[in-house]
Amino acid sequence: MSRQRRRGRFRGSPHFRLRTGFVLIAIVLSVFSARLVQLQGIDPRAYAQMAADEGTVDVVLPATRGDILDRNGVPLADSVDGLMVVADPFMTAERAPEIATYLSKRLGVDYFDTLERLRIEDSRFQYLARQVPATLAKEVVADADDLGYEGISTRRDPVRAYPARDVAANLVGFLGTPRKNGAARALAGLEDTFNGYLAGTDGEARYEVGAGNRIPLGDNTVTEAVNGADLTTTIDRDLQWYAQRLLRQTVLGARGDSGHAVIMDSRTGELLTVADYPTYDASEPYETPAGEGLYKSAALTDVYEPGSVEKVLTLSSLIDAGKVTSRTRFRVPGSLERQNRTINDYWEHGLLNLTLAGIVAKSSNIGTVLAADEFGRGELRDYLTRFGLGQRTDIGVGGETKGLLPQGALWTDQTEDRIAFGQGLSVNAVQMAAAVNTIANGGVRIDPSLVKGSAVTGAGTEVGSDHATRKRVISEDAARQTARMMERVIDPEAGVAPGAAVPGYRVAGKTGTAQRVGPEGGYDGTFTVSFAGFAPADDPRFTIYVVVHNPRNGGGGGSVAGPAFSKLMSYTLRRYGVPPTDTRPSRLPVEW
Amino acid sequence: MSSTAPQLRSRLPRLAEAAVERARLTVVPRRRTRAPRVPFVTLVSTLLLGGVVGLLLFNTSMQQASFAATALEEQATNLSAREQTLRMDLERLRDPQRVAEAAKRQGLVIPAAPAFLDLDTGKVTGNVAPATAAGDTKITAPPPGRPAELDPEPVRLEPRRNGGADEKKQKQHPGSSDQRDGQRDGQRRR
Description:
The complex is a heterodimer.
Chain A lengths: L1 H11 L1 H28 L2 H12 E6 L6 E2 L5 E6 L1 E6 L1 H4 L3 H12 L3 H8 L7 E8 H14 L4 E5 L2 E3 L7 H4 L2 E2 L8 E2 L2 H5 L1 H5 E2 L1 E8 L2 E2 L5 E4 L2 E2 L3 E2 L4 H17 L4 E8 L5 E7 L20 H4 L9 H10 L8 E4 L2 E4 L2 E4 L7 E4 H7 L2 H8 L6 H8 L26 H8 L8 H12 L3 E3 L8 E2 L5 E2 L6 E3 L3 H15 L17 E10 L5 E13 L6 E8 L7 H19 L17
Parallel strand pairs in A: 2-15
Antiparallel strand pairs in A: 1-11, 2-3, 3-7, 4-5, 4-6, 8-9, 10-14, 11-12, 11-13, 16-17, 16-28, 18-21, 19-20, 22-25, 23-24, 26-27, 27-28
Helix pairs in contact in A: 5-6, 5-7, 11-20, 13-19, 14-19
Chain B lengths: L3 H8 L5 H7 L14 H56 L2 H10 L9 E3 L6 E3 L47 H16 L1
Antiparallel strand pairs in B: 1-2
């Protein structure tokens, strides 16, 4: 009874109960407030960040890289969504053989290599396959999940495709394996020069997710990606393809080292084709045996001496200066002594009575030197500079050479004699094509262009056909007379290159056979043969320049490059539907 | 007006004092009308409930839309990837090399020179000649040549001049031996 009372007294004492309650509450509250101080007082931001991160997703919205297109909008390089397939060896090691078998079947990866990667210890990230088309990669990973293979996932890895493979690879260049964050790694060509222009800017999205879905009213910020701009070139892909095949056949047929073929629209200066041989396959750049040395546009980066093709520049300048006409008569001896060096022609002859047209048609060095004697000091150099020699064409290809036009003290009388017929100066193929095109275009030089419209290079300069300037170099009459003289080169009787004729058309052209400078400096006894010309001669539409370095079959410009020129020209004329002009060909006298 | 009341009271006879006392006006407490509570409570609870349920439904539908959006986005990504893959296949098929090889297999050749037929006048310009495969351009790469290792210089043995006593010890031509050494060096360097 008394015990019960005592208990009752305890229970019944409101003061005691209250006090105990308060103490308990106080204890709990102090624990809470201590935690509160810990959370809010000491480094509250880190906790806030952790809370936000828990449900927030940051996504990079990838910008699509712009395509490189040909003049008709056909892609030379285009971007495709791709994924990389990666493994977490920690999870895959156990069933590695099965997974490797599965992946080698589905993705065509090497079994042993994959097996090794799936088993690497202390790693949680291994590449299994890169740049797999997105559809295939997703399918493979989904099927792997169904089969119960764990630890395989995909990540973004854009694919750059070069559908025409080696066609225009010398110009377009290629992208290497993307960086880890998916950014492009431009390694050569236009891809490299215009990397910034093509790349665009990645966007960013930040939003909260719950169970994989976006929370409708949660935090949500999106910065849209700015896609890269397309780069439209002036190249005609199909024509470029044909030119590359023909050039390969020509170079191999002549057992030469290398070659270039340039096709230019005479009226606009747009380059329809810039072909190099040898070249590489842009879709498999590392598979080409010769490798890295080929990752360039040799027609722009390599220099050589143009040889007799340059004579048309010398002689048209002479006509423009009013010193001679196409009918001026010259007595051309068998050899010419100049400053204790002898100048010869490529064929043995006695004293010849040639007109200026004859000098062009027969490609006489001696005749050219005699004619060029009419020039005052420095005049020839001025003309050649205005033809664009010794200056970059700046069409947007990296590593272009300026060529070499001697100046100052190096420009001696002896040099001038040699330069008059195309030795002792160096050019690149596009430069030379643009110079010859000046004659085709009635004496007005147009800057060659490779980019249609306008685009900004990595160096910040704007290039393209919109920026091509026109400048008169020689009078229209001088250009016309030169074109008529050049027609005689093709003539089966008067000229040296009947093989360059295009049946049914009037063609003007000039052969070139130049001594080559060897690796040690000085001529090494090998040659560069070339042919430059345009058609139709009286209303030129296309200028074509074919160059073959070091042919070993003993051929010259007329026999090696001439037939290639003819095929290329007839293909181009047909492709663009240019009918023959149906006028009488040039009958300029070559002898007197 | 209030000043008239005491006058009135004083004029009245005292007789009826009790009655007057009884009849004195007093302020009565205002009568309160008790409106029925039920409709109001119903209204409020309906509003509340409706609001809550509405919000819930709204939220649910938004979630639903979000699910749908995620699914559709996924589908859009897949479809655009598929489209790109197909476009890539198409580009591969349009590769000029492939088309040219296919054309060549069917016996097509590249004509030598163009000719034009004017449809109005029927006049033919240009060089009219049948296209032949004779001067056709080779469009395929030549097969790779045999590597030098597989094509060694032949070993030349020179018969001994002084009527060989022991023919097995034939001397090699010094030139060819040098050449082979050079070749071996080349291989080593490689």
